[in-house]
Design a protein that fits this description.
The chain has one domain (9-108, 148-212): 3-Layer(aba) Sandwich (Glutaconate Coenzyme A-transferase). The chain has 6 helices and 11 strands. The protein has helices spanning 9-12, 34-43, 63-67, 83-91, 101-113, 176-179, and strands at 21-24, 48-51, 71-76, 95-98, 117-120, 134-137, 140-146, 150-161, 166-167, 183-194, 213-216. The N and C termini lie far apart (57 Å). It comes from Winogradskyella litoriviva. One of its GO terms (molecular function) is transferase activity.
Protein backbone atom coordinates (compact mmCIF):
# COMPACT_ATOMS: atom_id res chain seq x y z
CA UNK A 1 0.00 0.00 0.00
CA UNK A 2 1.37 3.42 -0.98
CA UNK A 3 1.81 5.69 2.02
CA UNK A 4 0.64 9.21 1.11
CA UNK A 5 0.99 10.66 4.60
CA UNK A 6 3.21 13.71 5.03
CA UNK A 7 4.16 15.15 8.38
CA UNK A 8 2.85 18.70 8.10
CA UNK A 9 1.49 21.43 5.87
CA UNK A 10 4.97 22.63 4.93
CA UNK A 11 5.82 19.25 3.43
CA UNK A 12 2.36 18.94 1.88
CA UNK A 13 2.77 22.17 -0.09
CA UNK A 14 6.19 21.45 -1.54
CA UNK A 15 6.26 22.45 -5.21
CA UNK A 16 3.83 25.37 -5.05
CA UNK A 17 5.06 28.53 -6.72
CA UNK A 18 3.99 31.88 -8.14
CA UNK A 19 1.48 32.06 -11.01
CA UNK A 20 0.02 28.60 -10.40
CA UNK A 21 -3.64 27.62 -10.56
CA UNK A 22 -5.12 26.24 -7.34
CA UNK A 23 -8.47 24.62 -6.45
CA UNK A 24 -9.93 25.08 -2.98
CA UNK A 25 -12.71 22.92 -1.57
CA UNK A 26 -15.37 24.45 0.64
CA UNK A 27 -18.64 26.33 0.50
CA UNK A 28 -18.68 29.60 2.35
CA UNK A 29 -16.41 28.80 5.28
CA UNK A 30 -17.61 25.20 5.59
CA UNK A 31 -15.00 22.62 4.66
CA UNK A 32 -12.27 25.03 3.59
CA UNK A 33 -8.62 23.88 3.79
CA UNK A 34 -7.62 26.29 6.56
CA UNK A 35 -4.09 24.99 7.04
CA UNK A 36 -3.22 25.11 3.34
CA UNK A 37 -4.56 28.65 2.98
CA UNK A 38 -2.58 29.84 6.02
CA UNK A 39 0.59 28.30 4.58
CA UNK A 40 0.04 29.96 1.20
CA UNK A 41 -0.31 33.31 2.96
CA UNK A 42 2.94 32.61 4.80
CA UNK A 43 4.74 31.70 1.55
CA UNK A 44 3.54 35.01 0.03
CA UNK A 45 3.05 33.54 -3.45
CA UNK A 46 1.89 35.97 -6.14
CA UNK A 47 -0.09 35.85 -9.37
CA UNK A 48 -2.36 33.00 -8.28
CA UNK A 49 -5.46 31.81 -10.10
CA UNK A 50 -7.88 30.38 -7.55
CA UNK A 51 -10.84 28.13 -8.37
CA UNK A 52 -13.34 28.08 -5.51
CA UNK A 53 -17.07 28.36 -5.03
CA UNK A 54 -16.49 31.63 -3.20
CA UNK A 55 -13.70 33.84 -1.89
CA UNK A 56 -14.19 33.47 1.85
CA UNK A 57 -14.78 36.58 3.96
CA UNK A 58 -12.57 39.62 4.48
CA UNK A 59 -10.50 38.18 7.33
CA UNK A 60 -10.71 34.43 6.78
CA UNK A 61 -10.47 31.79 4.09
CA UNK A 62 -9.35 33.01 0.68
CA UNK A 63 -9.99 36.53 1.95
CA UNK A 64 -6.58 36.28 3.62
CA UNK A 65 -4.91 35.76 0.23
CA UNK A 66 -6.91 38.66 -1.22
CA UNK A 67 -5.74 40.93 1.59
CA UNK A 68 -2.13 40.24 0.63
CA UNK A 69 -2.84 40.79 -3.10
CA UNK A 70 -1.70 37.24 -3.84
CA UNK A 71 -4.61 36.35 -6.13
CA UNK A 72 -4.54 37.51 -9.75
CA UNK A 73 -7.74 35.77 -10.86
CA UNK A 74 -10.74 34.27 -9.08
CA UNK A 75 -12.90 31.62 -10.75
CA UNK A 76 -16.00 31.46 -8.57
CA UNK A 77 -19.74 31.14 -8.32
CA UNK A 78 -20.76 33.14 -5.24
CA UNK A 79 -18.76 36.15 -4.08
CA UNK A 80 -21.21 38.21 -2.04
CA UNK A 81 -19.62 38.07 1.42
CA UNK A 82 -16.26 39.67 0.78
CA UNK A 83 -15.91 43.46 0.64
CA UNK A 84 -12.24 43.33 -0.36
CA UNK A 85 -13.09 41.02 -3.23
CA UNK A 86 -15.71 43.50 -4.41
CA UNK A 87 -13.30 46.41 -4.12
CA UNK A 88 -10.54 44.66 -6.08
CA UNK A 89 -12.96 43.47 -8.76
CA UNK A 90 -14.56 46.90 -9.31
CA UNK A 91 -11.17 48.64 -9.35
CA UNK A 92 -9.82 46.21 -11.95
CA UNK A 93 -7.13 44.84 -9.63
CA UNK A 94 -8.66 41.35 -9.73
CA UNK A 95 -9.69 39.34 -12.77
CA UNK A 96 -12.95 37.50 -12.05
CA UNK A 97 -14.68 34.68 -13.92
CA UNK A 98 -18.17 34.06 -12.56
CA UNK A 99 -19.59 30.60 -13.27
CA UNK A 100 -23.00 29.04 -12.54
CA UNK A 101 -22.59 26.89 -9.46
CA UNK A 102 -23.56 23.63 -11.13
CA UNK A 103 -21.20 24.32 -14.00
CA UNK A 104 -18.38 24.97 -11.54
CA UNK A 105 -19.02 21.60 -9.91
CA UNK A 106 -19.20 19.76 -13.24
CA UNK A 107 -16.04 21.36 -14.63
CA UNK A 108 -14.27 20.06 -11.52
CA UNK A 109 -15.82 16.63 -11.97
CA UNK A 110 -14.88 16.55 -15.66
CA UNK A 111 -11.25 17.23 -14.73
CA UNK A 112 -11.46 14.52 -12.08
CA UNK A 113 -12.81 11.99 -14.58
CA UNK A 114 -10.41 12.94 -17.36
CA UNK A 115 -13.06 14.44 -19.65
CA UNK A 116 -11.81 17.46 -21.65
CA UNK A 117 -15.16 19.26 -21.63
CA UNK A 118 -18.90 19.07 -20.98
CA UNK A 119 -22.05 20.49 -22.54
CA UNK A 120 -24.49 22.24 -20.20
CA UNK A 121 -27.69 24.24 -20.77
CA UNK A 122 -26.76 26.59 -17.91
CA UNK A 123 -25.83 30.05 -19.15
CA UNK A 124 -27.06 29.69 -22.72
CA UNK A 125 -28.34 33.02 -24.04
CA UNK A 126 -26.48 34.99 -21.35
CA UNK A 127 -23.06 36.62 -21.02
CA UNK A 128 -21.78 33.30 -19.69
CA UNK A 129 -22.06 31.81 -23.19
CA UNK A 130 -20.43 34.67 -25.10
CA UNK A 131 -17.64 33.42 -27.37
CA UNK A 132 -18.27 29.78 -26.51
CA UNK A 133 -19.32 26.89 -28.73
CA UNK A 134 -23.00 25.94 -28.49
CA UNK A 135 -24.87 22.86 -29.66
CA UNK A 136 -28.42 21.59 -29.66
CA UNK A 137 -29.33 18.35 -27.87
CA UNK A 138 -32.93 17.08 -27.92
CA UNK A 139 -34.23 20.48 -28.92
CA UNK A 140 -32.37 22.36 -26.19
CA UNK A 141 -29.27 24.50 -26.62
CA UNK A 142 -26.15 23.76 -24.61
CA UNK A 143 -22.86 25.55 -23.97
CA UNK A 144 -19.47 23.86 -24.24
CA UNK A 145 -17.48 24.28 -21.02
CA UNK A 146 -13.91 23.04 -20.64
CA UNK A 147 -12.67 21.01 -17.70
CA UNK A 148 -10.49 22.94 -15.28
CA UNK A 149 -6.72 22.64 -15.44
CA UNK A 150 -5.12 23.18 -12.04
CA UNK A 151 -1.71 22.57 -10.53
CA UNK A 152 -2.88 21.79 -6.98
CA UNK A 153 -6.22 20.99 -5.34
CA UNK A 154 -6.44 21.75 -1.62
CA UNK A 155 -9.06 19.65 0.15
CA UNK A 156 -10.46 19.46 3.69
CA UNK A 157 -11.86 16.14 4.93
CA UNK A 158 -13.03 14.98 8.34
CA UNK A 159 -11.19 11.67 8.46
CA UNK A 160 -8.65 9.92 6.26
CA UNK A 161 -6.03 7.21 6.28
CA UNK A 162 -2.42 7.02 5.12
CA UNK A 163 -3.53 5.63 1.74
CA UNK A 164 -5.57 8.78 1.08
CA UNK A 165 -9.06 7.31 1.57
CA UNK A 166 -11.40 10.07 2.75
CA UNK A 167 -14.61 10.60 4.69
CA UNK A 168 -16.30 14.01 4.72
CA UNK A 169 -18.68 15.23 7.39
CA UNK A 170 -22.02 16.95 6.84
CA UNK A 171 -22.12 20.02 4.64
CA UNK A 172 -18.31 20.22 4.63
CA UNK A 173 -18.55 17.60 1.89
CA UNK A 174 -19.71 20.25 -0.66
CA UNK A 175 -17.11 20.87 -3.43
CA UNK A 176 -14.35 18.85 -1.78
CA UNK A 177 -15.08 15.43 -3.38
CA UNK A 178 -15.39 16.88 -6.90
CA UNK A 179 -12.01 18.58 -6.61
CA UNK A 180 -10.14 15.45 -5.47
CA UNK A 181 -8.07 14.27 -8.39
CA UNK A 182 -9.09 17.27 -10.51
CA UNK A 183 -5.60 18.82 -10.37
CA UNK A 184 -2.10 17.55 -10.99
CA UNK A 185 -1.58 17.21 -7.22
CA UNK A 186 -4.33 16.78 -4.61
CA UNK A 187 -3.39 17.76 -1.05
CA UNK A 188 -5.77 16.84 1.77
CA UNK A 189 -5.83 18.05 5.36
CA UNK A 190 -7.90 16.00 7.80
CA UNK A 191 -9.02 16.32 11.40
CA UNK A 192 -8.34 12.64 12.06
CA UNK A 193 -5.63 10.61 10.33
CA UNK A 194 -5.90 6.88 11.00
CA UNK A 195 -3.91 3.81 9.93
CA UNK A 196 -4.92 1.99 6.75
CA UNK A 197 -7.69 -0.50 7.46
CA UNK A 198 -9.46 1.47 10.21
CA UNK A 199 -11.97 3.15 7.91
CA UNK A 200 -15.12 1.22 7.05
CA UNK A 201 -14.88 0.69 3.25
CA UNK A 202 -18.64 1.27 2.98
CA UNK A 203 -18.29 4.75 4.48
CA UNK A 204 -15.44 6.04 2.30
CA UNK A 205 -16.51 8.93 0.05
CA UNK A 206 -13.28 9.31 -1.97
CA UNK A 207 -10.78 6.49 -2.56
CA UNK A 208 -7.08 7.18 -2.12
CA UNK A 209 -6.32 6.95 -5.83
CA UNK A 210 -7.49 10.56 -6.15
CA UNK A 211 -5.09 11.82 -3.46
CA UNK A 212 -1.32 12.42 -3.61
CA UNK A 213 -0.63 13.90 -0.13
CA UNK A 214 -2.50 13.78 3.16
CA UNK A 215 -1.69 15.28 6.56
CA UNK A 216 -3.33 15.91 9.92
CA UNK A 217 -4.33 19.55 10.14
CA UNK A 218 -4.10 21.68 13.26
CA UNK A 219 -6.04 24.49 14.91
CA UNK A 220 -9.19 24.33 12.80
CA UNK A 221 -11.30 27.39 13.63
CA UNK A 222 -14.36 26.28 11.65
CA UNK A 223 -15.84 29.77 11.63
CA UNK A 224 -19.53 30.26 10.86
CA UNK A 225 -20.06 32.66 7.97
CA UNK A 226 -23.57 33.79 8.89
CA UNK A 227 -24.58 32.94 12.45
CA UNK A 228 -28.33 32.89 12.95
CA UNK A 229 -29.77 32.30 16.40
CA UNK A 230 -33.29 32.19 17.74
CA UNK A 231 -34.33 35.17 19.85
CA UNK A 232 -34.87 34.49 23.53
CA UNK A 233 -38.48 34.32 24.67
Amino acid sequence: MINKKVENVTEALKGVSDNMTFMFGGFGLSGIPENAIAQLVKLNLKGLTCISNNAGVDDFGLGLLLQQKQIKKMVSSYVGENDEFERQMLSGELDVELIPQGTLAERCRAAQAGFPAIYTPAGYGTEVAEGKETREFDGKMHVLEYAFKADFAFIKAWKGDAAGNLIFKGTARNFNPNMCGAAKVTVVEVEELVPVGELDPNQIHIPGIFVQRIFKGAHFEKRIEQRTVRKRA
